[in-house]
Each structure stands twice: as C-alpha cells, then as structure tokens.
Amino acid sequence: MPAATPVVEMRDVTVTFPGVRALDGVDFRMFPGEVHSLMGENGAGKSTLVKALTGALRPDSGSIAVDGRPLEQASPRKSQALGVSTVYQDTNLLPTLSVTENIMLGRESRWGPFIDRSATQARARALLKELALDIDPAAELGELPFALQQLVAVARAIGIDAKVLVLDEPTASLDGDEVADLFRVIRHLKRRGTAILFVSHFLDQVYEIADRLTVLRDGALVGEYRTDDILRIELVHKMIGPQYAAIEDVAPVDFSQQFAGDSGPVVEAVGLGRRGRVAPFDFVAREGEVVGIAGLLGSGRTEVARLLSAVDRPDTGRLRVSGAGRRVRTPRTALRHRIVYASENRQNEGIIESFSVRDNILIALQADRGWYRPISRRRQEELATSYIQALNIRPADPDAVVRDLSGGNQQKVLLARWLAIAPRLLILDEPTRGIDIGTKAEVQRLVNDLAANGMAVVFISAELDEVLRLSTRIVVMRDREMMADIANDGASSGKVLTMIAGGGAP
Amino acid sequence: MKNLLAARLTWPVVALAALLLLNFVLQPNFFSIRVQDGHLYGSLIDIVRNGAPTVLVALGMTLVIATRGLDLSVGSIVAIAGAVACSILASSGSEANVPVVIVAVAAALAAALVLGAWNGFLVAVVGIPPIVATLILMTAGRGLALLITQGQIVTVSSAAYRVIGAGFALGLPVSILIAAVIYAAAALLTRKTALGMLIDAVGVNPIASRIAGVPVKGINWSVYAFSGLCAGVAGLMISSNVTAADSNSAGLWIELDAILAVVIGGTPVGGGRFSLSGTLVGAFIIQTLTATAYTAGIAPGVMLVLKAIVVAAVCVMQAPRVRSRAQRRVPSRPRAGVRS
Amino acid sequence: MSGAGPNGLRRLPKRRHLSWTVSLGLLIVLFIFGAIRFPGFVSGQVVLDLFVDNAYLIVLAVGMTFVVISGGLDLSVGSVLGLSTVIAAALLRAHWSPGAVIIVVLLVGSALGLLVGLGIHYLSIQPFVATLISMFFARGLCYVLSPDSIAISDPFFLGMAQAQLPVGFGLEVSPSVPVALLVVLAGVLVLHWTMFGRTVYAVGNGGRAASLMGVPVARTVVLVYVISGFCAALAGILFSFYTLSGYSLTGVGLELDTIAAVVIGGTVLSGGSGYLWGSILGVLVLGTVNALITFDGTLGTWWSKIIAGALLLVFVLVQRLVLRRRRADSGGSKPEEPGARARAWASDVGRGGLRDG
Questions:
Q1: Structural domain of residue A475, as residue ranges?
Q2: Position B340 in a domain
Q3: Closest Cβ–Cβ partner in C12, C197, C210 for A98
Q4: How many helices (H) and strands (E) does chain B have?
Q5: How far C32 CA sits from the closest chain A CA (Å)?
Q6: C-beta atoms of A17 and B205 within 8 A
C-alpha cells in the first residue's frame, strides 16, 4: 500500500441525531490509489460517515481533511470542490436526459450564453472513451440498463477531477458481468491515483476489489485492516459483534417443548422471485416453528419477507397459502389469511404517526373486519389495555399519540397490532433493531411463546446470535439468493457464519 | 383525541362568533327570526340556506382532501346535475308531475355519482395525480353541461322541483334539511363505523395502511364518488332555487369555497385527520362572510381575492407542520425534535 | 454515433420523438378528415389562421411547457390571461400609453408567477395548490377591476387587431403570429440551448438527484413560474389584440387547453421530458379540432372543451401506461403513491436528505 500521506483524513468525527449517536469519535483515512471498503451492518454508521465526507451533513465534532485541506462548513458543493465525488446507490442521475447531458450537467461547453452541444458531447465521449465504455453519448439515460447508468454516474463523478470517488452500494443491482465491468473501471481509476471508497454488502466483491477496509459497528470504529490480512469469518464477526447481557434470560429454544400439534404448512412458496430483488426460492413455514432468516444487509432477506406476505408482487413462482382458495396478491388478502408482515421500516411502513396507540393497535383488526363492523368502544378499550399490559407499552395510555413514543414502544405497538388479528404466520423483519436491550429481550421471549402456541414465525435479524437463539430452522441468504435452509441443531453457528460470509471455507 | 379536536375547532368557532357579532353590530335585527306562514325567516336562516350547497360540496371535499387528494371538478358536477335535471324536466312536457321530477332528480344524482366514481377510478386505479384527473372534468365537465343544455339556459317551472332549493318543510327551508340529513349521515358513517378511522389512516400514511390491510384503493375511489354525489345534490339545490340550469355559471368557483371551508376547518391539505365539524364551521364562516360583504356593499370580486388570500394564509400556517411531518418521515431519525 | 448533425433535435434519441410523432399523425389525420368533409378546408389561409387564432395559446403553451418539464403544473394561466386583458383594457380606458400598458401587464403577470414560485419554494406549499390559489386570486382581481367587459379603442391596439402582414401568395397573418413565433424561438433557445434549460429538465427528474448534482433547484423552480406568468400576461396582450376587449371571464378553463396542448405535444406530466416544438404541435391539433367544429357549423362550441379534455385524458393515460411499463422493465420497487415525489423532494430540499443505513 502507498505509504504516502492520506488523501482523506477524518479524526474523531462524531455525529448525533436526536436520540442516536450515529458516529462516535471515528477516525478514518484513505490513501491515493487505493480501493477502500467501508464495512458494517445496518445502523453501523456507514452512510453517516459517507455523508460526512461528501458534505451532505455536518459532524458535531471532529475534523475532516481532503488532500490536506480541511472540509469546514461542509456542503456537497464544498466537498466536491475539494475533490470528493460521489455515486449514489439509487437517486443518482436524471433518467430522462441523455448520457451526455448527465455527464456534463453544470459544466457544459458554452458559446456565449448558449450550450455548445457538439463540444459538450465531444468531451463526454472522450470521458467515456477514457474509461473504455462503449456507451452512446446521445442515448437517453433511462433507456440504458441499470449497470450502464451506474457507469455513466462514475464517468460524471470522475469528470469533476475527483481525487476521491465514493461509490455507495454501486453493485447492489448489478449482475456478475456488470460488476466485472465496474471493477475494470475502478482498477483503471486506481491506477490513475484516485482513492476509491467502495461501500458494499457483498463480501465476495469486497475481497475481490478492496485493498483495505474499515469496519464500523454501532457508530464506533472497530478497526482498519488490510483485506489480505483478515479472514472473512473474522470480518463477519467484527461486523456483527458479540451479543451479551439481558438477552441471557431468554431461554434458548427447547425443541422438545415445541408445539405438539400436527405441524401443517401455513405458507408454501414455490420458485417465488422478483427480478433484481431476489432470485427464485422455495420456502415452507409450518405451524409452531420459528424460521430465522440470516444474512447480511442487502442479502435479500427483506425481499423474501415481502414476497411471502404479498406486500411486493413476485414476477415468478407461486405463493400457496393453506386454506386460501384464490391466489394471494395483496397484503389485504394475506392478512385475511392471517399472514402478517411487520416491516423493518417502522416509520414509513409501520406506524400511523398521528394516530393514538389504541388506533394503531386496532387498525389492522378493524380493516380486516371491514369498516361497517366497528369494534365497540368497550372492546377497543379492553383490547388496547390488555395489549398495553401484556407487552408493557410505555406510557400505558391508549390515547397517547404514537409518534411521541420511543422506538421500542412503537415496535411493541406494532407487534400488538399484528397479534390482535391472531396471525398464523408472523413475519418479523428486524423487530429488535434500534430498540433498547430490555425491550429486545421481551420481543425475543414473545417470539418463543407465540411459536410454542402454534404460530409460525419468520424472524429476520442482522444479529446472528439472535437468530440462532430463537429459530428452529435457519434460512441463509447471500447476494440475493437463498443459500440454505437448515435445521437449527444448536451447533450450526460456525456453519451459518460461513455461509453468510460465502467464498468457501474460511 | 377530543381535546385535539376541540383545540382545532377553537379558532374557527371564535372567528364565526366574531363575524356574527359584527353582523349584529351592522344590522341589529340580524339574529331575529320571524315566523311567517309557518315558515321561519331571517338573516341567519338565509345564511344557512344559501350555505347549504357549499356545506355539501365541502363535505365531500373534506373526505377527498383527507386522503391526500383534491377535487377540482365539483363546480362542473354542480352544473351537470342541474343541466341533467332541468333538461329532463323541460323535455318531458309534464314537469309538474311528481314522478317526472323524481326521475329527473335520480338521473341527475346518478350522473353526479358516475362522474365522481370516474374521478376515483382515474386517481385510485389508473394512478393519475388527483389535480390532473379532476382538472379534466373541471373543464370538460362544463362542456358536457353545455352539451346537455345545448348552450342554453334551461328554465323550468315545476313547483315540485322548486321544493328542493326553495321549499319549506317543518318550518325550515328544505335545502337546509337535505344538507343536514346528508351531513348527519356522513358524520354517522364516518364516526359510528370505522370508516373515518380508515380514511384518516390512508391520509396519514398510505403505505403503512396498505400493509395493515386497509383497502386503500377502495377508499380513494369512494371518497371521490361521494364528493361527486354531494356536488350533484348541491347542483340540484342551486338550479332548483333559480328554477334554471345555467351551465356556464352554476357552481362556478364553488371548489374554492369548498377547499376554503375544509382548510379553515382544520383538515390539512395533503392528508391527515379530517374534521367534519370543522368543515361545517368553515362553510358557515364563508357564507357569513359573503353575507356580510353583501350587506357592507363589498363587491363579490373582492371576496374572491379575499378568499384566495385566506387559503394562502392558512396554507402558509400549515407549512411548518408539513415540514416537521416531512422530518418524521425520514426513517433513521427516530424521533424528530419539532412537534406541532 | 451517426446522428451528430448540426441540428440539436436530431441528436436526441428516438423514444423522445414517439409521442409527438403520434401528435403529428393525429394532425395529418384531422386535416385529411377536414379535406374530405369540407371543401376548402385545406388551404393556405386556413393553415395560417390556425396560427392567427391560436397565437395566444402558443404563447401560453411555451410557458406551461417550462413548468410541466420542471415537474409542476400551472393552473393560473387562464386567470392571469384574463387579468391581463382586464388590466390592459382598464388602463387604456384611463388613457395610458399602449407601451406603458404592455409593460405593466407583463410585470404583473411575472410578479404573480414570482409569488407562486416563492410560495412553492420557501413556504413549501404544494405547487398545484399554490397555482390554484393564484388562479382564484387573479380571477378575483379581474372582478375587482371590472365585472363588465371593457372595450378597447386605443389606436395602437386597434392597429394591431386590424393589421395584416402579407406572407406571400396573397396570404396574410396578424402581427400576433410573429410575436408568438418569436416567443417560441426564445423558448426553444432557453430550454434547449442554455444551462438554465438543462436545469429545468434536471429539476423535473426529481429535486433530490438534481440538487445532489449541484444544480440550483430553488432558483430554477422560482424562475419557471415567473416565465409562465410572463407568458400568460403576454398571451393576454395578444388575446386583447384579438378581441379588443378586457373581460373578467376571459380565459376560464384555458389552463386545460394549455395543459392539453403541452401533453399532446409529448411533454410528460411527471416532468423531466418533453419538447417545446411538441407543444406547438399540440396547439395546432387543438386549433384544428376547433377549426373543424367551426367549419361544421352545427356543433356547439362546448365540443372544443370536451374534446380538449378527452385528448388530455387519452394522452395522460398513454403516458401512464408507458411509464408503468418502463418502471416494470427497470424492476422498480414500490408503486408510486400520489404526491410521493413532491413530498420526498420537499423533505430532501428542506433537510439535505439525511438518511442513515
């Protein structure tokens, strides 16, 4: 590695949001001509660090320097002026404009006040040529495959004479060949001396392209490593971290005490898949079992859950629900068959923020009964109070507005909402993320109890420990594919970790 | 929730009271109601009666706005309903005949319902933005009304038809009774069943509502249909009151009054918890204002300008709320600091 | 790369041309229909009269094209046009000089647009609501100034109304036509050949991407509504040349015709895509429909409103289908709910789009 002076140097950077310390005194550096990967799970602070670097937000304390010059009063413009260019994962470019226009927007060649179109296009073409990209500069961007759009974004980014190129999840939607194309461009830029920050969830790719990596967890720096020096399994350990404390009082699953009834399938998926989201998979959920879905962020675990609950529409395969005559196509019909999806995105897809706790608990039940059969006032009180007690929701006031509750209590309100309709299959997507440790233990205990009473539960978590502790069966996701579906026999931790990490034996 | 509602209603009610008081000062006999031939007469009765169409249109508009929509076509539907009813009556040759009037009224209401459902279809199923979808009917609808009346003002002389807009029953103008019944029905439907809660949910967070099994499309569809129906009834009242269908000017600018009533009543533009009582107060404020302007000799044009300024002011006042809501929408910031 | 000719339009990809080629086809079909049905329909003067009769609509469409491409919609154009005729007529009645009158009218229109733009940007009022308010406000001002029609007898305006400019072959046009064509030319230059024009397209793609690309979103949004207000005022002047009166009910419902013209011309209502030339084509389609109605003589004028609405609807539906298929092609995620883009944009612009993952 170049022993030269770092081109990016962040020292003791702290960023806080109300209630959360997103980055906690993090040091970070990058050298010219290296590909540096930023690793960490959800909420680890990767995006916050990227935003601090690109000027999208200002840190509360600490210093950031690019090429020796400090980034002060940060803004995207200032960061760009210092030589940091960014390619964002999704909303990056303008699909209705041409490739040329996208690459050159804001720095077109001009002739007086007018754009010199041919000169502008020539510059764009030269830039594409330098990257050895065979893209028609006159094509409309939206008409190109997504991979090429991504490469156009790279072309735009380096056109601003970037010293540092930030690639935020650039490969999230690319297939193998497309990734190879991108990597070719990255290697080319590396030879030019550009420092490249490569943020990705795909370990295979990180190991293929990155020279060094920095691991973050819960907003704190875990360490900086040379890719060659760290085994995959170690890396995954460092990202996921050990889990301790209050969780210990949740009894591990006692398999002998499992639901004794006739364990019929509740939901059966055959070849279910959605292009660009998750490869076709088979899956069965049976009464009384907890199926854990393990995998890193972006591995397709959420997509599986959304397809199983008909929140997203599949483009291949079938979802068979026992007892359902017709195909289940909408969340409403899924709910009618008592299949429930508790989204990881509590704010946007969970709570109805200006509603009371009571109404939030009752909305799904009420929607299911139909508007013309209102739940009586007394029954509403009963239900709300009993769930508030059972789940220990604070404040214990059914009339409290739900947006004023803490994250953990909002989560409990949502659990109450789903439990109120007596689900047969409960799909919990990251139910314990961002909530305090005590609540976490309560949620875990609840999952245990529900399964013991015959409910089928699908449990998704970034924390492997939690998945191992709760599940009777474990499904492993990697790179948008279902890799394995194995019984949790208590000794599979190493095996699962290996499968999550991929790339053969560690 | 009651406290919230009460708080939301406080200012509109104060404003209404102040306006009424102002009228009392201008016109000491403002509050007097006299009985003549068993019918009630007086300034207040006039205000309520003239306000009945506005109340109805605003009622439908409230539910539409609650689901993050907007219905610009109500004025045209008013014109079409009047045009349909009057054309049927005029061409029937026996317009005094009560069954004929019933057919005419039913046809007009059916037309209004269909047009409302059409708006709902475009918004909920096809996914056209509400403003565009209803703008089409707002303008093309006037054309339809003119088509029905062949560009003429169709006058009728049916006494039975006149009852709707100018008749009396139980001592009160019939139009007040009709509006009261529909308002009460809507209030009962939304507050005694779970409909109100589901509409609220769709307006506050459509995505979460969908996942929670709320029939988002169906609700969107029905609020536009209801809005169309309300506009249809209002159209009958207006045309019955003047015993004519004027396709060009019937219901012109009524969408402004309706939006204004809704906004004054505290239902936020852009969706959220709606308040029917707020809309009622809002509609009466507007009607009283119009009456006041009339007695004070202010030109109707000035009123239009004033109304536009009031809507703008209320929108601006809502702006911080919109902003803080936008903040809460961002996932990773668990609890935004700003509260409204 | 073959199509790199000197003409800017030629270099853009085919897909963009699709919509307005359909409109061109429609125009031709209308003319063939007219030729078969009415003798004398296809003549040089009829074609020129399309421009004469719709000069004001062309100018409106130019402004509206800017707004729609930027992702907005201006509902106030009809009212601002009406207000302009009333202001012009009232000031002329008060013996102002025509030059001063025209300047005042243009300033008022631009100022209304400025207010709308500022309201949208700084108070985060929804764009549609802001222009709706402006629509009512301008119409109210019309009534305030004069509820009755005011005739214009100013010699300059009379001259403009009566002048006929020969264009050869014994054909003539009114002075409004060159004015409208100048506006079109200026519009094309600004929209397609300047950085500001690029920015309008960028903003129409979604404010977030544009601001991440370092584009001045705020300034662009405000300017776009100023342009639309200016165009509406200018159209009002042309309209008063045409009718020689100012009347408070002038231009009611004109926003629909304007939006229809823009959409028929291939500009997508969700923003970011479209052509100024296309909008002119849209005006001609509407104008031809009206001409056919006039030639027929038995059809009521209301048919023009109904047909404009129907055409707008058809083109919006087609856009919707194309868009939906495109989204399906690119494996887009969740279905867009109404207003999602505007809100996401407002929240992003307001707060720099903080989003941790």
A1: 245-338+423-501
A2: no
A3: C12
A4: 13, 6
A5: 34
A6: no
Q: Which helix (H) or strand (E) holds A167?
A: strand A164-168
pLDDT above 90 for C286? yes
Domain boundary (A379, A397, A421) is at A421
Identify whether the C-beta of residue C147 lies closer than 8 Å to the C-beta of residue B301: yes
Pair (A302, A409) in one structural domain: no
Q: Is the predicted pLDDT of residue A2 greater than 60, yes or no?
A: no
- Which positions in chain C touch B262 (Cβ < 8 Å)? none
CA atoms of B63 and B42, how far apart (whole Å): 32
Enumerate the residues of chain A whose CB falls inside 8 A of the CB of residue B68.
Answer: none
d(CA C34, CA A431): 67
**CATH classification at residue A94:** 3.40.50.300
**Which residue in C179, C175, C183 sits closest to C157, CA to CA?**
C175
List the chains bordering chain A where 3 or more Cβ pairs fall under 8 Å: B, C
Chain B hits for C147, CB-CB cut-off 8 Å, are: 299-301
Do A413 and A327 share a structural domain?
no
Count CB-CB contacts under 10 A for residue B171.
11
Q: Provide the residue range defining the domain that includes B303.
A: 2-329
Inter-chain residue contact C1 with A136, CB threshold 8 Å: yes
Same domain assignment for residues A269 and A128: no
For residue A17, the chain B residues in CB contact (below 8 A) are 332-334
Helix or strand (DSSP H, E) at B222: helix B216-242
B60 Cβ partners below 8 Å, 6+ apart?
A: B71, B74, B116, B223, B226, B227, B228, B229, B230, B231, B258
Q: Does residue A352 lie within any of the structural domains?
A: no
- What's the alpha-carbon Rg for chain B, to the nearest Å? 20
**What is the least distance, in Å, from the CA of A372 to any CA of chain B?**
6
User: Residue A292: which of A418, A202, A427, A411 has the closest Cα?
Assistant: A427
Query: Distance from C141 to chain B by nearest Cα, in Å?
Result: 6
Q: By three-state DSSP, how is residue B49 classified? A: helix
Final residue of a structural domain among A219, A240, A261 = A240
Residues A108 and A22 in one domain: yes
pLDDT tens-digit series, residues A370-396: 888 989 999 999 999 999 988 888 888
Residues C232-285: tens digit of each pLDDT:
999 999 999 988 998 888 888 898 899 999 999 988 888 888 889 899 999 999
> SS3 for A224?
strand
CATH number at residue B185: 1.10.3470
- The answer to whether residue A111 neighbours chain C at the CB level (below 8 Å) is no
CA neighbours closer than 13 Å in the CB half-sphere of residue A7: 22
